[in-house]
Amino acid sequence: MSQTGHRMVKEITKTVTLDYLLHIPETAEPLAADQKWPVILFLHGAGERGNDLEMLKANGVPLIAGQDKSFPFIVISPQCPVDEFWGMHREAVMALLEHVLENEAADPNRVYLTGLSMGGYGAWDLPLFYPNTFAALAPVCGGADPSKAEELRNIPIWAFHGAKDDVVYVTESEKIVHALEALNADVKLTIYPEGDHDAWTETYDNPELYKWFLSHSL
User: Fold this and answer.
1) What percent of the chain has pLDDT over 70?
2) What pTM did the predictor assign?
């Protein structure tokens, strides 16, 4: 017999590289030994891809953190390379998160994931591969395959979208949210009736989002 079946099992090491912004809240007093900060992992949109981290400060949570040095979350904002997508960098993003959790006063039970546009899709995608990591999820003008709803049903989710978005249609959020609602998941969708693709400015300027994040923990 010239061909026989076999299985190869071999451990390999992979090197990943990712540039990122890191916000650590500035406080008048140092943290107590047992105190840890909640964490926001932020995934930017397609327009901020590249190798210039300053681009990330224009929108979303990095903009908020840049305006308020005491913003009370550790904020991790990786940058996706040009012409690539977040789904191509899942391992690197999670390695970055693990690195920050190990080296900063970060609470692993209060890690919140959010992103806008391309990053909104990334925010829906990442928990599919890394369950039991994120305490809550807030995708902005993104979307996901509704057939994946079962895999997301145990994560509290608050999605946001502009009704007049002509870049990512609001139906992208509606389809996955409706599938989750059918499973009685903890999910809600805010649609801005006059909003276009920029659903992120109003979303991230809303203090209720951060209160909602903090109401959830693993």
Assistant:
1) 100
2) 0.93
